[in-house]
Design goal:
mainly alpha, 13 helices, 302 residues, Na+/H+ antiporter like fold
Amino acid sequence: MNEVSLQFSPESLTILNICLAFIMFSVALHLRWEAVRYVLTNPKSVAVGLTSQLIFLPALTLLLIYVLDPHPAVALGMVLVAACPGGNVSNFFTLLGRGNIALSITLTTITSLTSAFTTPLLFLVLSRFVLRGGNDIAFELPFLDTLVTISLILVVPALSGMLFAHRFPKLTNKLKSPLQAMSMLVLIGFIAFALRANFSAFLAHFTLFFWIVALHNMLAFIGAYGWARLWRRPKPDKLTIGLETSIQNTALGLVITFNFFDGNGAMAIILAWWGVWHLVSGYLFAVLIGRGLLSVGKSKTV
């Protein structure tokens, strides 16, 4: 498994970092400062959503790794997925499934702005369980270096995008859709370029990656939905929390893999495939549950 490796020059890594910063800026044009006000007026749903993403998903990931016992590099990829903040496409699927869009934007905003601290911390803690038995994979993730990297490529662009949207709302409405589409095309093109030299290795291990990611993602949504139901959140909030937990910003995970793990192929493919698969699963969850095509029980709002 360790023979799958994605090699990048320093110049390529710089370009990838710029790509993610550009993507985060375009995403932030959709975020709102009103998220702070929403937290104050709806603390229970926000707390349930945050605990689902920051506590439930990491715990579920460790349990799944224990049951499946995958290769350590694959396990670290799963851990890095769980440590990433929520992905912005969750906002679109929440709207599609008639969820709570204000809650979705709030959770995405909070996890994105705090990711410089939470992502390296969660990864460092969780990876100790994965690597406790010893293995043949080199492991080192310097906390401060990672914090600085995430701050520069995620938090600073996010704050800049939110400030830009606040100061120039009319211009933002014209730019945000084309900028977001352009940024996603840039990232897809870059990742496709990176994987082209390792495509045969990707195909050789595709079945393993596919089922691990599909199972991990499905359990993340179902478990988060159940967690919200346990706390008697209304249906729109349950759907939203399920989507926020199962849709992760795996582009950030790829940047961390390329910057700090020498492009470990198994980790990168887990992250890249999750980024593809959550588009499929997010749509299905939003349509089937949000539109009432799949019954998941009733719960009372408190």
